[in-house]
Design goal:
Strand order of the largest sheet: 1-10-9-7-8
Mean pLDDT: 97
Bound molecules: 5-phosphoarabinonic acid
Radius of gyration: 23 Å
Helix content: 40-55%
Largest sheet: 5 strands, mixed
Structural class: alpha/beta
Length: about 450
């Protein structure tokens, strides 16, 4: 097993009988998911996606990735939320958070359309000056404001630089297979298009073309990623939570939630995982935070954040639990050098691998936080690789679905996301929103 759940540090917070009482609820959630009888059952395409995906499109992704690698210095990935977080998480996890700075034979990848910032957009545009550029715009709806604005900008940038014909060869669109204006526009313009499947929501879409095209451009083996996910789909299809760590994780979250632990902190010890935490936060936050319920997902990278948030985790309000990701083999070592002057008094560490120091920091922190009243779930991950990351992605997607069903929400919708959009459109004067605008403006002037 590449991912092992270690519950040793939960013994003071959960007693074994609580697992037994959670068992029927987990089994019911399992049945709802497998028989597609639960809420949001039109969005379960991700469940068997690792084995049941469009092979022809997968080959086209590989061909396009190769074309992008050969024809550009820079790929701009335009998308927001589930339409970009997965790709960025995987690229930074497997390559580096400094991917654009390290020496490589793959294009730099910049992200646009994931915020509303003139400064950010200007900066990415400036980074493209003098470079050969391709664009992958990713939007299921095709009308989300942030990516739509960025696509206007970069389409015109490419058309000015290469002409309409040249731009056509450099624009890759990932969107709905039939619906929506982006699909229609792309077909008319002759762009290469990829599909966001109807039955896969944005935050569950990293293993579709949404994530796979940018990931493949970064030189990551997407076959191995899919194989890892397929393995996870096979081994976590077991209704007994005591034999299924994925379901056990979902059960533990709900047991702790019912005891007032309303915040989960994902704690990693590797900066390369920071964006993976962001992906995880969207997955759980958007899936569970509804009907006035849900565990707030937060994240930290230790030991960095032990020097900022450590005090709060150790000693602040006791509303949280931690899920600690422990990657055994990160793929590199670093022996600590000897200092003849020993000015810092740390020569007892000389020659020691930094990974060992990290391990002791982690074990010390887990014990300290448990002593401070913070339940700690340990997820022990064997290595940093495509295959194992594929397993992790599936592990969390499945755990999220099961946990959401146990919580009693529809894990596959996101009605709350619309509220800010409606207000923003009204305030911006979108036709049809006149009445709402007047009432919002009155409130803003109070
Ligand atoms: O998970 C989700 O559904 C959202 O985060 C969407 O992915 C995000 O809002 C972007 O939507 P779209 O792909 O339609 O532009």
């Amino acid at each position: 097993m590449a991912i092992q759940l270690n519950d040793r540090y939960l013994s003071g917070f959960i007693n074994p009988s609580e697992y037994s009482s959670m068992d029927p609820q987990i089994r019911a959630a399992h049945t709802m998911l497998r028989e597609k009888s639960g809420a949001g059952n039109a969005f379960l395409g991700w469940v068997d996606l690792p084995t049941n995906y469009d092979r022809e499109e997968f080959e086209r992704i590989l061909v396009s990735a190769e074309k992008i690698r050969k024809s550009c210095d820079v790929l701009i990935v335009i998308g927001i939320g589930g339409s970009y977080l997965g790709a960025r998480a995987v690229i930074e996890y497997l390559r580096s958070p400094n991917y654009n700075l390290v020496r490589k034979n793959t294009p730099a990848i910049y992200y646009a359309g994931n915020c509303i910032s003139a400064d950010a957009l200007n900066e990415v545009l400036a980074l493209c000056e003098g470079k050969d550029v391709c664009v992958n715009v990713i939007s299921k709806s095709g009308t989300t404001t942030e990516p739509a604005v960025a696509f206007r900008v970069f389409r015109s940038f490419l058309e000015n630089k290469y002409g309409k014909e040249g731009a056509r060869e450099r624009i890759f669109v990932t969107t709905d297979k039939a619906k929506g204006t982006l699909k229609q526009f792309s077909t008319e313009a002759g762009y290469e298009t990829f599909v966001v499947p109807d039955d896969v929501g944005g935050r569950f879409s990293v293993l579709t073309a949404v994530g796979l095209l940018p990931i493949a451009v970064a030189g990551i083996d997407i076959r191995k990623l899919m194989e890892g996910a397929a393995h996870a789909a096979e081994i976590y299809n077991e209704p007994d939570l005591m034999k299924n760590d994925c379901y056990k994780y979902a059960a533990i979250r709900n047991i702790l939630y019912r005891k007032g632990k309303s915040m989960e902190i994902m704690a990693g010890y590797e900066p390369f995982a920071a964006m993976f935490h962001e992906w995880w936060k969207q997955l759980f936050g958007e899936s569970e935070g509804k009907d006035q319920k849900g565990i707030f997902p937060a994240s930290v990278v230790f030991s960095t954040d032990l020097h900022s948030l450590g005090q709060f985790v150790q000693d602040g309000s006791r509303t949280m639990f931690e899920t600690v990701i422990d990657v055994a083999d990160v793929g590199s070592t670093f022996p600590i050098p000897e200092d003849p002057a020993n000015i810092d008094g740390l020569n007892f560490l000389s020659g020691m691998d930094l990974n060992l120091v990290k391990r002791m920091a982690m074990q010390g922190t887990v014990l300290a936080h448990v002593d401070g009243g913070v339940p700690n779930i340990l997820l022990e991950v064997s290595e940093r690789s495509e295959y194992v990351l594929g397993e992790m992605i599936y592990f969390f997607e499945l755990a999220c679905a099961i946990s959401g069903y146990v919580l009693g929400v529809n894990p596959f919708d996101q009605p709350g996301v619309e509220s800010y959009k409606k207000n923003m459109f009204a305030l911006l004067g979108k036709p049809g929103y006149e009445e709402m605008r007047a009432s919002l403006e009155a409130r803003l002037k109070i």
